[in-house]
Design brief:
Length: 521
């Protein structure tokens, strides 16, 4: 949608900026209020305006006649390029001066010279805007709407109209009050987006880094400057305001919000390219302010699932602390372990997601969804999913370190993976004990003789095993039992659901302890 740094409004033609406004959901608005009116009121303030020679506007340019018109007027006529015809900018020669900057913006380019020599008395004009000026227009319209309630045809309608007409606050003031400081960092971002889109091979990290650094140097900014601008301007001022508006069902911001999110993603990409940090680093750094400042944490503006799942896990797991106290790490060490596993064990993210789905399934609040709750609760389905994810995590770790091939094909299943990894946390005698107990407690062929296997596992005690090793044996058995039971049986479902919350919780924590202990290096 945004092939150039500048988007246009053209006489007798819609132009790329109008298409951009429509994409942001302003179709009806610009259909009711003409663009000429918006320019007259100062609600739109173009960066440049250019008065094209009339001959360039006489014949409509189409895909069929473009080559002929170009040949008649001279190959790659810059005026036709300013009108938006021809190929989009692509970086071809990195030896050119300012190769990372869009040709329209290079100070000595023919395009820039044309844009800066317009006689304002000549009409009609073509107007040029940065893409972010559409966001600014949305904020102007929000201020002009005078609140969330429309004017109704009530007996006191004249008073409402008078109140609005006499308001001293002009909608266009928002261009100074809010966008006066936002304009600069958003313009940096417009340049970065144009550069990024012009890369011949987007995956070329070397060229991307070289251009990102060169562009920052040209704009006289560094990583510290950009970081401050993202935090203070894009997050605190702009995103914070729009998050509030979206929460209050603002029609003006709702459609445009994903595009602003995308801009913030690009800003973070640029920042991380400059300083070598990762998005996850900033998710942690910008979670909440220590100074009670009101602004949205980064992960609420960019709700990437992997980080949302991680935060949910770290905040929810401590509720079960009595079931794993002294076994699993806590606080910062737990945070470090989860971070390490997310980076090193690909399926671990799926385990975290299953954990969150399980809990959100239970705490579903229909009043927040605008409907009654017609669901049939099936939380036990998530035990099966968690156990499968646990098995996948263990198998992935074994395959990654090269020891999966050491397990016989018949033993390549959950209990086999646990036994292979168990020497990290269990003595040889305890591992032998575990092998025997797996056969006793997790093979559910004769369900009549095992009326409640999880209770039997919870009641296990050993006089010759340490408290921690006993607990781990029980946790590993619970994990294997969950994998076997929920894959093949249903006879305990009702009991789990109605009466045995402690037993089902013990099984849940057993699954998590199995993964976290066996994969903690």
């Amino acid at each position: 949608m945004l092939p150039d740094t500048f988007l246009s409004i053209q006489p007798n033609k819609k132009g790329s900026f109008v298409s951009w406004l429509e994409e942001l959901g302003l179709n009806d608005f610009i259909g009711r209020y003409s663009l000429s009116k918006l320019l007259e009121w100062g609600w739109l303030v173009p960066k440049f305006k250019y008065s094209f020679p009339v001959e360039y506007l006489e014949e409509e340019v189409t895909a069929e006649n473009f080559d002929r018109i170009q040949n008649q007027s001279g190959h790659n006529d810059p005026i036709y390029r300013l009108l938006g015809y021809g190929e989009s900018w692509q970086i071809e020669n990195t030896e050119e001066p300012l190769w990372f900057l869009h040709p329209f913006c290079r100070p000595d380019s023919v395009y820039n010279n044309l844009l800066n020599q317009t006689d304002s008395s000549v009409t009609p004009n073509t107007y040029y805007f940065f893409h972010w000026q559409a966001y600014a227009l949305i904020d102007v319209v929000r201020r002009a709407s005078m609140g969330a309630f429309p004017i109704l045809n009530t007996p006191d309608i004249k008073q409402d109209i008078s109140r609005i007409a006499n308001c001293r606050m002009k909608p266009s003031d928002v261009l100074i009050d809010l966008w006066g400081e936002l304009a600069k960092p958003m313009t940096w971002l417009s340049h970065y987006r144009a550069f990024r889109d012009a890369l011949p091979v987007p995956a070329n990290k070397t060229l991307h880094k070289k251009g990102s650094e060169a562009l920052a140097k040209y704009l006289e900014i560094d990583a510290e400057t950009l970081e401050k601008a993202i935090k203070e301007q894009l997050l605190k001022k702009l995103a914070g305001d729009w998050v509030w508006a979206n929460d209050h069902c603002c029609e003006w911001t709702f459609r445009a919000w994903p595009y602003l999110q995308k801009d913030i993603i690009f800003a973070m990409e640029w920042l991380c390219t400059l300083n070598g940090k990762s998005l996850s680093d900033y998710f942690k750094k910008w979670q909440f302010s220590n100074k009670r400042e009101v602004w949205p944490p980064l992960h609420k503006v960019l709700p990437f699932e992997y980080f949302e799942d991680r935060q949910y896990f770290l905040s929810t797991l401590p509720r079960y602390k009595k079931f794993y106290e002294g076994i699993l790490p806590t606080d910062e060490k737990l945070d470090q372990l989860v971070t390490c596993l997310q980076q090193s064990n690909y399926p671990f993210d799926s385990l975290l997601n299953a954990f969150r789905q399980f809990h959100e399934h239970l705490i579903y609040q229909p009043q927040q969804k605008g409907s009654l709750d017609f669901r049939v609760l099936r939380p036990l389905d998530y035990y099966s999913l968690l156990a499968i994810r646990a098995e996948t995590c263990l198998r992935y770790a074994l395959d990654k370190n090269g020891s999966l091939s050491e397990i016989s094909e018949g033993d390549q299943k959950l209990e086999g993976y646990i036994i292979k990894l168990a020497p990290k946390v269990l003595s040889d005698k305890s591992i032998e004990c575990l092998k025997n107990e797996v056969k006793t407690y997790t093979k559910l062929y004769d369900t009549a003789s095992k009326p409640n296997p999880i209770k039997s596992i919870m009641d296990i005690s050993y006089s010759n095993r340490s408290k921690q090793e006993t607990y781990l044996i029980k946790a590993f058995l619970s994990c294997v039992l969950a994998r076997n039971y929920f894959a093949h049986h249903t006879y305990l479902d009702k009991e789990f659901m109605q009466n045995q919350k402690e037993q089902s919780t013990f099984m849940l924590i057993g699954i998590l302890v199995t993964v976290l202990k066996l994969l903690d290096d």
